[in-house]
Amino acid sequence: MMLMTSPDCLFCRIVRGEIPATIVHSTAKIIAFRDIAPKAPVHVLVIPRDHHADVAALAEADPALAGALLAAVGVVAAGEGIDVSGYRTIFNSGPDGGQEVAHVHAHVLGGAPLGTAIVP
Ligand code: AMP
């Protein structure tokens, strides 16, 4: 299967195996790996293998892949044992959204009560 990856993108480099990551879920289209600087007891990033800049770009270019990404969030939550206790899913977009890596990724956070704050 042809993948659309970007040479200098950090997460594309993880997809290609050029940078190590602790991968917790992997399919032909999606991978999920532990965030290197976890903000909660469970903090996993779920990404499509294909490069799309953010969630809006992904949904516009490939709605089926966007659906697969959302489905993978649930699979990861169950695999991490936080599907019943609950978790938060965050997509940051652009500078004001705090997006540091321009490859769409769902943050899946849980394992403890996260409170109600949306912004720090
Ligand atoms: P965002 O600010 O939404 O773009 O989130 C980027 C996330 O990627 C941050 O939570 C970082 O801690 C995380 N991150 C950066 N480099 C790595 C890496 N090499 N492996 C795993 N997570 C990373």
Short description:
The protein has helices at residues 10-15, 55-61, 63-79; strands at 23-26, 30-34, 42-48, 87-90, 106-110. The chain is 25% helix and 21% strand.
How does the SSE layout of this entry go?
Blueprint: H1 10-15, E1 23-26, E2 30-34, E3 42-48, H2 55-61, H3 63-79, E4 87-90, E5 106-110
Antiparallel strand pairs: 1-2, 2-3, 3-5, 4-5
Helix pairs in contact: 2-3
Residues 10, 19, 21, 33, 35-37, 45, 92, 98-101 line the site of adenosine monophosphate.
CATH homologous superfamily caption = HIT-like
Total separate domains:
1
Q: How widely separated are the two ends?
A: 41 Å
Q: Which range does the strand content fall in?
A: 15-25%
Please summarize the sheet with the most strands: 5 strands, antiparallel
Q: Please state the overall shape, judged from the principal axes of the Cα atoms.
A: globular
CATH architecture: 2-Layer Sandwich
Kindly report the average pLDDT value.
96
Q: How many beta-strand segments? A: 5
**Number of DSSP helical runs:** 3
Strand order of the largest sheet: 1-2-3-5-4
- Give the bound compounds: adenosine monophosphate
Low-confidence spans: none
Describe the structure.
This protein has a single domain (10-110), classed as HIT-like (HIT family, subunit A, 2-Layer Sandwich). The protein is an alpha+beta fold and 120 residues long. The chain is globular and about 40 Å long. 25% of the residues lie in helices and 21% in strands. A five-stranded antiparallel β-sheet has the order 1-2-3-5-4, covered by helices on one side. α2 crosses α3 (63-79). The chain has three helices and five strands, in the order αβββααββ. Adenosine monophosphate (AMP) binds next to loops.
